């Protein structure tokens, strides 16, 4: 199973992940990042794109 | 395909190489770069890196990547028929497939080249020089209030250094974000103690070996110890003149990312048609575009690329304010503020032929995904 982890100490809310994988990453009412840690495998390409696009490299994808 | 050359060792070139390997391409990859450094993260150079030289600039996966790095000498010519890249007097690089990702070169200010204390910020070595210069707590003039100049000015204010920011347009960031947003950014600069000179150009710098004064086009002379030139950038295409590629404000590619058979272009240097803008050619100098188009160029060379027409996204961080945007936000796209708060938060929309083509905000970030969906759906 795919596990998503975001290092929120690195995150600066550039929101590139929200654009790349809106099913997994979103912004709360304070514009802070929230995310689904165990999304379905069908979302893997979108999450991989989010990992690539994150300008502070704060998103990690573990497991298969 | 057994040998792919990538001209340009920035983010687009790196991403293309990574995507080729990810897709299982096991031939040679040669990456030719003008700088002596392997690819690194460029956005911090105008921000965190100037505050702290230990800022991590590594791009994940660069070390492990199976490519031949040919660094410290840019590609100087292309023989399209002979499938050969020239690198000055160094050995040529032969290829079956080529990705052009040579990016942009910063505009310089004529007549200031010999003076110490004049820094044109583009690459890591420039940022190192600027960081070193800041240690002497200089009085600084920044020429150009685009993204780079605005960010440098904000960083210098964070260091409590005196800054005069000179911009020829009536407001900062006019071309990329339009007048209403530029007006808000101007107020932001002034509120943070920047001496903002709008409608003015830097025309000369003077001093005995080292800059001492900067002259503006209205005759004003500013005492200064440092001049940072941030006047935008030009696509790095001169080396491609006369080789049958279409060069028009960049390397022109088709909707599949190809400039010629087995020749793709990506990143800041590439100019592509945009369906949303009625087929107009656009060149996008944003971080996310380098990654998306780099990825796409790799797929184009392998013949598995779809049409490439994403909605751009970008950001700019100033004084703790996070400006973010989606789509096409230029001054020509009828910018309109739909929200504007006294604390500097705003939301701006951009229109073309009655349709929303872009949005920019400080403080209403969570509204942007819906805009991006709207823009994307209107595309279809």
UniProtKB/TrEMBL annotation, chain A:
The cofactor named in the record is: [3Fe-4S] cluster
What is the superkingdom listed in this entry's lineage? Answer: Bacteria
Keywords (A to Z) from UniProt: 3Fe-4S, Electron transport, Iron, Iron-sulfur, Metal-binding, Transport
**Which is a Pfam family this sequence falls into?**
Fer4_15
Q: Which SUPFAM superfamilies match?
A: 4Fe-4S ferredoxins
Protein name, please? Ferredoxin
Q: List the source organism.
A: Nonomuraea antimicrobica
What lineage is on file? Bacteria, Bacillati, Actinomycetota, Actinomycetes, Streptosporangiales
From TrEMBL, chain B:
Supply the SUPFAM superfamilies for this chain: FAD/NAD(P)-binding domain, FAD/NAD-linked reductases, dimerisation (C-terminal) domain
InterPro entries in the record? FAD-oxidoreductase/Apoptosis, FAD/NAD-bd_sf, FAD/NAD-binding_dom, FAD/NAD-linked_Rdtase_dimer_sf, Reductase_C
Could you tell me which residue ranges the Reductase C-terminal domain spans? 314-378
**What keywords are annotated for this sequence in UniProt?**
FAD, Flavoprotein, Oxidoreductase
Q: Which cofactor(s) does the record list? A: FAD
Under Gene3D superfamilies, the record lists:
3.30.390.30, FAD/NAD(P)-binding domain
Q: Which Pfam families match?
A: Pyr_redox_2, Reductase_C
**What's the domain of life for this entry?**
Bacteria
Domain annotation FAD/NAD(P)-binding: ranges: 4-294
Q: Which residues form a coiled coil?
A: none
Entry's transmembrane regions: none
Question: What PANTHER family does its record include?
Answer: APOPTOSIS-INDUCING FACTOR 1, RIESKE DOMAIN-CONTAINING PROTEIN-RELATED
User: How is this protein named in the record?
Assistant: FAD-dependent oxidoreductase
Give the species this sequence originates from: Nonomuraea antimicrobica
């Amino acid at each position: 199973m795919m596990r998503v982890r975001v290092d929120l100490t690195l995150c600066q809310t550039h929101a590139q992940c929200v654009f790349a994988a809106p099913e997994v990453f979103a912004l709360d009412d304070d514009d802070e990042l929230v995310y689904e840690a165990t999304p379905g495998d069908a979302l893997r390409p979108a999450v991989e794109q989010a990992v690539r696009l994150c300008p502070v490299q704060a998103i990690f994808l573990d497991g298969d | 395909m057994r040998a792919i050359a990538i001209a340009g060792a920035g983010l687009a070139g790196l991403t293309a190489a990574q995507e080729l390997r990810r897709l299982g391409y096991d031939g040679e990859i040669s990456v030719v770069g003008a700088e002596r450094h392997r690819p690194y993260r460029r956005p911090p150079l105008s921000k965190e890196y100037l505050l702290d030289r230990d800022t991590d600039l590594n791009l994940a996966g660069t070390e492990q990547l199976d490519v031949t790095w040919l660094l410290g000498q840019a590609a100087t010519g292309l023989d399209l028929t002979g499938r050969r890249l020239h690198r000055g007097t160094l050995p040529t690089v032969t290829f079956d497939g080529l990705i052009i990702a040579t990016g942009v070169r910063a505009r310089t200010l004529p007549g200031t080249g010999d003076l110490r204390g004049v820094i044109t910020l583009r690459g890591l070595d420039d940022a190192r020089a600027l960081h070193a210069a800041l240690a002497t707590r200089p009085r600084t003039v920044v020429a150009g209030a685009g993204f780079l100049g605005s960010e440098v000015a904000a960083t210098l204010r964070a260091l409590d250094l005196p800054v005069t920011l000179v911009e020829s347009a009536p407001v900062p960031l006019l071309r990329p974000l339009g007048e209403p947003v530029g007006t808000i950014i101007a107020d932001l600069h002034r509120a943070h103690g920047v001496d903002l000179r709008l409608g003015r150009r830097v025309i000369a710098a003077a001093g005995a070996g080292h800059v001492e004064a900067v002259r503006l086009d209205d005759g004003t002379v500013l005492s200064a110890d440092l001049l940072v030139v941030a006047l935008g950038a030009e696509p790095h295409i001169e080396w491609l003149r006369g080789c049958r590629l279409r060069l028009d404000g960049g390397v022109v590619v088709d909707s599949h990312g190809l400039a010629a058979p087995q020749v793709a272009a990506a990143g800041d240097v590439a100019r592509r048609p945009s369906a949303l803008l009625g087929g107009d050619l656009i060149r996008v100098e944003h971080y996310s575009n380098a990654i998306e188009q780099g990825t796409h160029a790799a797929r184009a060379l392998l013949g598995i690329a779809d049409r490439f027409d994403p909605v751009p996204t970008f950001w700019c961080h100033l004084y703790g304010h996070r400006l973010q945007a989606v789509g096409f936000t230029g001054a020509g796209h009828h910018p309109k503020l739909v929200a504007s708060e006294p604390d500097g938060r705003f939301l701006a929309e951009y229109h073309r032929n009655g349709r929303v083509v872009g949005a920019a905000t400080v403080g209403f970030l969570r509204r942007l995904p819906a805009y991006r969906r709207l823009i994307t759906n209107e595309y279809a």
